[in-house]
Fold:
Amino acid sequence: MNFTGNQRKMYLLALALLIVAIALACTWSLWRKPSSAPSGEVSPEPTVSRTGETDSSATPAPEADSAVSGAAATSAPAQKASTIVYYQDNDGYLVPVMCTLPMEDGIAKATLGMMVKSAENDMQAARLGLRTVLPENTTIDLDIADGRARIDLSEEVLELPDAAAEANMISAIVQTLTEFDTVDEVEFLIGGQKRETLPHGTDVSGTFARGDINLEASADAVGAEDAQGVTLYFPSEAGTVVVPVTRMVYSQPDINTAVLELAKGPSTAGSLENTLPAGCGLIDVTVEDGTARRNFAREFADIALNSDGGRMALKALVLTCTQFDGIDAVEVLVEGEPFDPGEDTLSVPTFANVADTIVYDYIQTQSAMILDE
Structure:
């Protein structure tokens, strides 16, 4: 075939364009093939459900499966345990607080460890307005068997400043350990040795069972053979916790006696607050179907004038009443009319003091004070 000069140029240009088009088509085909799985085949990528578990309908590669399983294990929340820690306030009253800590073997020892003075423990106690009871650097060995806890404290406990601090430490340890169902009594060793007393005369011989807490000093004036203890609850001066106090009485230590004694207020001024308003009288008490009904004089309504609306005082009243067997709820009357404080303030609390609640209430109180200024 003969071409003119212009025809030859046009032919060569068309041939070049065809070659370029074929090259582009091949390149596109090669680039697109790896990125699309053939119809009917399962993609090797694992399918993860919204709960974080691998979907069993997929067929993940082994490496991907391990990665997903590892991520799920890492994100699983650590188990927590609730435990009762005994701190002390600035006036030396022991205060039980329900705290949470990571679940571990030896939870009783871990609980006691929270009561040893240290930067971390002191910060936690300070958030609650309280203080630790064991000296700094105290080490603890604990063995529990057949209902007896045998505790060996290091010799740092011999350096406490006075007998009151020694007695508080011993009482706090006994109260804390006997919160556990496996412990009925506690035996003390100091530095691996039995001792009769601590340096300031506090008895550590024999074994200790759970006993009265925060026994009022005036109890010494009452003959032990004639008196019995009754537990009363009073709000702390700071209004952040309620404090259990043992008062010795001559009468039967029942709910009627407890409420009458509660109306008298704490025996020492300044350190604890009255649960009931000044001048408030108890008209009568009835118990029916597990509910204790307290009928107070009109002064009881003044409880709402407290800075927290009387919430802590009402909590102390409920705790004082519901400590007795068969009392599951409390109702309040004022001059025979139902008294409704609102906000579930008469509901039975989970425990006297709960750490998270104390911190939350403190933040709320401080925020309210700032907003009122």
